[in-house]
Amino acid sequence: MHxxxxxxxxxxxxxxxxxxxxxxxxxxxxxVENIKESVFLxxxxxxxxxxxxxxxxxxxxxxxxxxLWIETEQKARDMVGCAVYSLNEELGLEEEDFAQSPKLxxxxxxxDIHLGEIGVVKEFIENPSNPLLVVEHGKKELLLPxxxxxxxxxxxxxxxxxxxxxxxLVDLF
Length: 173
Prior knowledge:
By secondary structure, the protein is mainly β. The chain contains 4 helices and 12 strands, in the order E-E-H-E-E-E-H-E-H-H-E-E-E-E-E-E. Strands 1-2-5-4-3-6 form a 6-stranded antiparallel barrel. A 6-stranded mixed sheet has the order 10-9-8-7-12-11. The chain starts with 5 loop residues before the first strand and ends in a 10-residue tail after the last strand. The model has no long low-confidence stretch (mean pLDDT 86).
């Protein structure tokens, strides 16, 4: 399994109770709610599958998950800090989903039609008047507007977004 084939849905933040349950923190609750059977945890750089026994929303961004075969608090505690992924194809996300919910673009590579590759999306800042993507560009962070007029193409399978940014915008940083 490769990260390129997966979508990061969140991070395990703490154990819950003594039965081996965990708390998942996610910026994409609409994605977590679509998960059916399994997820992948990044452990020592590898994606390891875990099967879900129970998944329950605790709030808009927190979920309680009980994995099969994880029966103790200590086993759950060992998972704290692990990134959690789901297969892109299992989520059934379409290009329109990414356009309507830009926070799904985290970990996508950003390209500009004039400049080529700019960097990787690290965060989405939800601002009603001017939503922004935080893009890692070398050792700098760029704040790029994610206005519909700037979006040329979103390719979920390639984890790529192509923009047509105003001339000179990237040079400001």
